[in-house]
Each structure stands twice: as structure tokens, then as C-alpha cells.
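Hi,

I'm pasting everything inline rather than attaching a file, because the server keeps stripping attachments. The sequence lines come first, and each chain or strand is labelled.
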Amino acid sequence: MKLLEKMIAPIDKALERFDPVKQSEKGVGGLRDRYYDKTGVAKWREWRGVRDTMVDYTAWLNNILSMVQMVASAPVPIMKAFWEYRWMGSYLGTFMFIDRLFEGYRGPELKIAHMNMHAIVQSLTKRIAFAMKNDRRLGGGPETEKIIPHDETITPLFLKGFKGLYPFPLQTLPEFIICDVDQHIEPYYIDVAESYGLPADVCSRCSAETGVAIDDAFPLFGKVLLSTNMPCNASEATSMFQRRRYGKPDFPITLAMQHNNPEALPYSRETLQNAMKFVEDNYGVKYDWDEFFRYAKLMNEQNTIELEKWDFFKTPYSPLSGIAESLYRLYSWQSVNGQDPYFNKVDRKVIRIMRKCYEEKHLPFGGKTRHRAFLWGPSAVYYTDFPTWTQNCWGITIVLNMDSTMGFNMINTEDPEIAMDDLTRFTEKACMRHHAVGGWENINAVWEWAKNFNCDMVLMNDNIACNGMLGVHGMMEDQARDLGFHFIFIEHDLEDSRTVSRQDMRNCVNKYMSVVLNEQPLDPTIVEFDDSDAY
Amino acid sequence: MMKKFVKPFMKLLSKVLLIGLIGFVATFALYITNGENKLIYYVIRPFLNKHYDSQERDRKI
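And the predicted assembly:
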């Protein structure tokens, strides 16, 4: 290894002038220099030194391979899907998306980020192929009747007790993940919904989902639809629109909003049990607890490793942070939810690297971190690489994201009675629920979390169309001042990049960092730039 | 006896290495020039968007 290092060193030295991180250190350029204006298209890929460029290149090849496998496994349905669904075209932006996410990453940060990302890519590509092979709009397939389409904010784990059936989060492919990849896709669906009279001031996620439904852009499969009131009141409305358009018998899984209250548990538990009964009646498959326990064990392992990761997050030596952490956790918890052992394998590898980094007192991002921030509130889906930008521009490490704190309780894997209670608690703490819904103490918990993770800063995502959160502005500002946290509201419109642009979001941070803290950016080329035409 | 196996093995190995090298050079060139993203952004997506914009979708409710 040392010999290899010796061989690489002179090459790295000679090519150092092409490394944008080194350029910004020397004041002769930076990360934005290699882009064509507005488009987000890079003239060339980031040179990160021989070793890290090879890590990035290998990850790129692996992701290409997953996509080739996807097309090869269902060539005709995939081609039909590209022709039928506008959102399918947006998936072509995946490579640019991944490049954006991990700009400026080096060493173990880059390695872990790509391990996490490839887990998502290999899972998503399989899911796309599976969905398209069985989509009734494209001709259907052998599993069409065995799929249980459910709202993506319902955790699929409890459905794994139905052997031979396939839970499928309906909105994830055409609405949620694709908005991460392409900031211009959801405005189209939002316009479709608004052209039918849906007001423009509702949550854009719910509006986009409604638009997808009206545009007949959801894949069609299954015998029923499991809708939900999660995470919030706007979701109840969009669920109603979607179930009417989807045209299948639906069961609304309405879990308690005040989910911290122990008295709410029996109600939510009964709702889940009724949902299980509904699936049993419609599919003729009996619930199998042993089958469920198999997957609950995988989920418990995911959560056990996650809790160990949190211990490292509290230190300055964690190579995992920002979007590499939160996107993975969001997908691996909410969508995978113990269903795919590949994620357990990745978790085991990642935690080994994290332990090693801690032992070696590895300082991530070249030791340039100036502030440790907790990211609270639902993030702008159209600006997924925002944490990467805060790191590269101002040295603000996003230590943990609110959505990473979703249900981390363990689930009993022997007794169905106890498991049912655990499962209910777990399900109630789903995406955007744990801290954005469920009463004041849930929202206010941010200070405790930020303190526990040794943060000096809180970035509060301010979804301007979230009626639930609009009322807390003043109170949060006051508390931040009293408790001595640096506090920045990041205004955004969740899935509609037209209302608050990415640069508008960056300006929220720029103003605070330059005016209030009087700090200089690490990389001046990325303080202000136009990426309005980028995916 | 050994020579009988070594020679074809070396021949095969050199072929594999050559193919590997050509594969590496081609894919790395595509990677470092950001070639696939340029093709997607400037050619494929505009073509697909044109098609999506011309679609007539039945949105009767």
C-alpha cells in the first residue's frame, strides 16, 4: 500500500492544479469553475487526486452497471415507460445528481457516500424494472395482482408478513425521489393539479402527488390501495384525490397525530390491524408472523447500527454527515425498512470504516468544519445537495437531519402481541412525523437534539407552504437566541423550485454567515451562482 | 508440458489485459469528459421533452 502511495504522490502533485478544492485553498479557482453557466453541466468531472478519482470512477461504473441490468431485465417495459411517463425521462439525470451530491468529497467521506448511494441506486433500478414489468398501463406482468401499492409515508415493514405479496411505495418513483434528481419535474405536475383548481398555497409535495394522479402517471398494479393521513393534514387531502383517481378499493391508515401520547397507541394499533385484515380479505393471504419477524430482525439491525453511528456523529471524527447520511437514512428507513439485506451489508461495512476513522481521529473534509449544524424540518426535495453546498462554501457540517431520527425503537421478534405495539410506535414515527407532527414538544425537541449532538447551529427548514409550521417562526427565533444557538431559517417550497430558487436558499445562509458572523467563504466561486437550468 | 499450458495462458492473459485496458481508457475518457451527461442534457432530454409536451393525456375527472 505504501509503495502505491509513493507511486501516486508525484502524479497527485503534478495534477494538483486541476483539483478544485486545492484551487479554492490557493485562491485560484474553485468548485464552480468547471461548469457551463446555469445548466449544472460540468465541462469535465472533478479531479480529486488519483485515489479518490478512481473511487468516484468505480462508483460511476457500478451505477452504470445497475442501470444496464435494469434495462436488460425488462427492456420492452422500460422503453415503453420512458415513452409513457415524463418522470422516467428525469431519471436520466441521475449521474449528474450523484456528481452534485458528493462534490468536494475526499477519502473515507467519499468512499462511504458512494457505498450508501450505490445501495440506493441498485435498489431503485430493481424497483423501476419491477414496477414497469408489472404496470397495467404497460401491459402488466406476472406479479401485477400480488403487489400492495401503499402511500410512501407508510412504512412497508408491517406488510412483510404477507408472504408472496410485494409492498410498493406508490409515490416514491414518480414524485419523491425524482424530485431529488430533477428540480424541474414536479412543477409540471403541480401545474396539472392547479389547473383543476387546487390552490397554489398548499404543500407542493401533496400538490405534485395530486398532479401525478390526474396525469395518470402512477404505475397501476395491485388489488387495493393503502392510503394514509401521514405525515400531516395536507397528506389527507392528497390521499383523497389519489384514491379517487387510482380507482381501487382503499384503506386509509389514519394513525394518531398526537403520537407521543400513550393513550393514542391502542387507536393506531387497531388501525394497523384493520389494515392487515383488509389486505388479508382482498388478497386471500394470511398474515405470517414468522415471515414478518425475519424482516423485523433486519430492521432491528439497521437501527442498531444507526444508533452506533449517532455516537460517532457526536464527535468531530465522523466521515459520514450531510447528504451522504440523510438521503441514505431516508431511503433505507422509509422505503427499504428491513426488506433488503443489501442495506444491512452496507451498514456493516460503513460502521467498520467509521470505527476506524474514530480510532485514527480522522478529521473529515480536510478539517475545514467551522460549524456543526442540526437540520430541522422537512428539507427542500429539489435541492438535495444543499448540505454539500453548506459544507463546501461555509464549512457548515450537517451533523444530522430531522428525518434521520425516524422510528429507532427495536421490534420484538418473538411475540406477535408485543411486536404489534412496537410496530405501531415504529410506524407512527415515520418520515416527517417524528418531529414535524405530533405536538409542540416534538418540534421543540430540536434544541435537545442539537445539544446532544454537540451542534452550535440549527438550520431550520422553512417550507413556506407548510401551514402547520408557519406559526412557530417567532417562538423558534426567540428560543435560539435564549439558548445561544446560531439559527438560520432556510425558506423553500419543498418541491416547487420556481417559488424559492436554490440561490434564494443559499442566500439565507450567505446573509447570516457574512452579515451576522462576518465569516469568509471557503470557496468564493460557490457563494452565488446561477443553476436555474440545472436538473 | 508446462510450456504447452503457459503459452496459451499468457496469450489469453495478454488479450484480457488488452481488452481491459481499452475498456478502461474508453470508459475513463467518457467519465472524465462528463460525456454521458452532456449527451443526456443537450440531446436525449430535449428530444424526450418534445415528445412529452406533444402527448395528449386524458385528464377527465
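Chain B has one domain: 2-54.

If the labels don't parse on your end, tell me and I'll reformat.
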